[in-house]
Design a protein that fits this description.
The complex is a heterodimer of chains A (114) and B (115). With 114 residues, chain A is mainly beta. Chain A has no helices and eleven strands. Chain B has 115 residues and is mainly beta. Classes of the chains: A mainly beta (114), B mainly beta (115). At the A-B interface, strand 5, strand 9 and strand 10 of A face strand 5, strand 6 and strand 10 of B.
């Protein structure tokens, strides 16, 4: 199994509060991704990183920001959480050119915004 | 834009039956990659297979087989002699682009295998 951890695994927070989710990998993979999973939508890409300090937006990036200061860590921040951001968040990593290699996923973080 | 359709929302079969999960994709790129992932009730996502657009050979891995047909833009997944442990949500995904930023998932098919 790829060495990917996510923290926290579960979080309940109130509307309007900031939230940061952490993805940590021990594989030294270059590419990292944040997805959200909602019923009926599969997984949707929020942001991705193609190197340290190199990030870009995905399909559903509004309301989210990311940072990657080290190869092993990719942080996802909800600046002011809203109920529509209640979801399961998955981090993924990819070894090389990700259009050739599969993405490996972390265990997920279940976030509830009340 | 890329799109993946999994028309079967839920499928229920009895153990030992064969079952096929359908996946239809849309892309204008000539180079792309297709994937299947399994999400068991425990929630993790498990990679099953990758196929590139230049390789239309079918693949078999144990009870699992995949049928890739570019002519119909389909990448179907068959489980032979299904088992209860196969119960999961199965996602088909399509990847284009240099950084995988266009890694698009289908909505998933929930398979229930009854004893």
């Amino acid at each position: 199994d790829a060495g990917i951890t996510q923290s926290p695994r579960h979080k309940v927070t109130e509307t309007g509060t900031p939230v940061t989710l952490r993805c940590h990998q021990t594989e030294n993979h270059r590419y990292m991704y944040w997805y959200r999973q909602d019923p009926g939508h599969g997984l949707r890409l929020i942001h991705y990183s193609y190197g340290v300090k190199d990030t870009d937006k995905g399909e559903v990036s509004d309301g989210y920001s990311v940072s990657r200061s080290k190869t092993e860590d990719f942080l996802l921040t909800l600046e002011s959480a809203t109920s529509s951001q209640t979801s399961v968040y998955f981090c993924a990593i990819s070894e090389s050119l990700p259009d050739r290699y599969e993405q490996y996923f972390g265990p997920g973080t279940r976030l509830t915004v009340t | 834009a890329q799109k993946v359709t999994q028309a079967q929302t839920e499928i229920s079969v009895v153990e030992k039956e064969d079952v096929t999960l359908d996946c239809v994709y849309e892309t204008r790129d000539t180079t792309y990659y297709l994937f299947w992932y399994k999400q068991p009730p425990s929630g993790e996502l498990v990679f099953l297979i990758r196929r590139n657009s230049f390789d239309e050979q079918n693949e078999i891995s144990g009870r699992y087989s995949w049928n890739f047909q570019k002519s119909t833009s389909s990448f179907n997944f068959t489980i032979t002699a299904s088992q209860v442990v196969d119960s999961a949500v199965y996602f088909c995904a399509l990847s284009v682009g240099i950084y995988g930023q266009n890694f698009v998932f289908g909505p998933g098919t929930r398979l229930s295998v009854l004893p």
